[in-house]
Design goal:
The structure holds two protein chains of two kinds. By secondary structure, chain A is mainly α. Chain A is built from 17 helices and no strands. Chain B is α+β, with helices and mostly antiparallel strands. Chain B is globular and about 45 Å long.
Chain lengths: 411, 231
Amino acid sequence: MDSEAIARKHEKILAPMTRAGRMFWATVIPLAAIFLWSVFAFGWQYRSGLGETGMGHPVSWAFYLVNFVFFIGISHAGALVSAVLRITRAGWGTPFGRAFDLGRSSRFYWVALHAQFKSPLLWDFTCIMTYFTVSVIFLYVLMVPDIGLLRERFPNRRWLYRPLSLGWTGTEKEWSTIGKAIGILCVAVIPIAVSVHTVVSWVFGMQTQPMWHSTIFAPYFVVGAIYSGIAAIIVVTLALRKVYHLEDYLKPYHFNNMGLLLLTFTLLWAYFTFAEHLTVGYSGGSAEQAVLWSKLTGKYALLFWIMAVLCFVIPFPILIFWRTLPGLLISSICIIVGMWIERYTIIIPSFIEPRLSYVRGDYMPSWVEWSMTAGLAAGFTLAFVIFSKLFPVISIWETEKEEREKESNPR
Amino acid sequence: MYRWGMVIDLDRCTGCQACVVACRQENNVLFAGEDEAKLGRAKFWMNFISEVKGSYPDVRMHFFPIPCMQCDHPPCTKVCPVEATYKNPEGIVAHIYPRCIGVRMCISNCPYTVRYFNWHAPSWPDEYKRGRNPDVYKRRKGVTEKCNFCIQRIRKAKWNAKREKRKLHDGEVIPACAQTCPSEAITFGDLNDPKSRVLKLSKSRRAFRLLDDLGTEPKVYYLKEGEWDDG
């Protein structure tokens, strides 16, 4: 099939890229405004110092670190899930792949934003940079055949697509090369993605602060990251499906499988959370106990139990008994919010109850921190929307390949 | 080689907090002001902690000055991504202000919470400016700072001794807190000197160290009669 025919066949995937209706601007303009506001807040803070935040003594890390852990979790889970599905040849993953990979497109923006203040350990920085490079290459290589198609399809955007397509014409040799490259990258991206969140957890786990110094922190953080990442992917794909009318490609069957994956991680997360808190409660030292009880019944009890409800009590029954599209949407949104609160209740209480119990302090985020948080979320979404206008959100060549395989061996 | 250490005798301490004031003067530690202090931005290289423990009839008053413990195994130095803080050969945990990038990991990994951050650019009232100590390095906004046993005094004393081709003798160098203490509760000296007062006191049966079970090996010892509990 020539490129023209393929393009006509997958008109629905390509259509959103040509239109920019009122909905598009109604989304982009407020997002851009929030993002620009956060840039202003950042400039303000850059000028007058971190004193513009609510941080102090002993709470020397707060909102920014919560956001750091949370957003890294969401974005890195994308590549991980995508690569695992590819290796295990799970055909139902194809429509999700591109949207997963998108998770990382806005990452550089905030690594650059936070690096100067936040860059925790050198390992962390190294891992994130390695991961960022590899995942961008991964995403890019997966798109090359589609960019080749786009180059033919949109002559007036050739300035963008021609250099990016690397002269892709779709010969036998090119297909075999890209197949190999994808195979290697899939395997490479998994340990790198796992290492990223492992090292993020070690920023806490290697410290002497009570309740951070835990051996299960690395797997706990990796599970939490993938958990929130899958939830984010579901929300994004549901939104894309609705807005861009991709019902033919993203079928309830795909979402049912994603729901099962999410259910697995709901249980994993609950298991880790239970194990972590029970161990501390049963045999932790007095400093650990102080933090634990501030979470269970003390100052952070409200947040802690909201987290438990959002991350487990609500999604668990929904994912078992009501795995429909609205059900998935509700549980995914609950999980995303709940996981943000989880990061918060991991980081802040340990600061409020430090080991030497005489030091007391409190923390309330300032307007700068709220603005930056809103700006990060807006920037994340904005990058997504713009990406979806420049590149197809579903891999055309992979959908095509799958159909051809189905035709050649119908089972 | 010297190995600086400090002994604080809590049985002598009257809680007057002169050490806190003297330290602030000596090291140009900026005061935060009421609003900032409420946000937890007050800096005390030498902090003073007081707490009422228990309730009637079993009430105890805990109070003690707390400088940097100058740990032999400092948890703060190893987490710094740019090696801005390190333990110098004489055992002092020093901080290189120009190299500090302000990630504050050393602050969060200090179990004694005695590291402080410059949340804003320093600004001094005019009356105060002329009283600042010229021997102390200036700290910009966005860097961490901490007690360093008045390293500028140690350096000066060592220069003098070197000129006279001799070693420092016990009690020759003394940090501001120890110098000002009216009840002479703070003793400072070389723990490697077998005849030093600080070594003798550190071996007293009244001696203990804060959070000793963490294995940080602090070089600040406290003396107190009877039981002490960290919590």
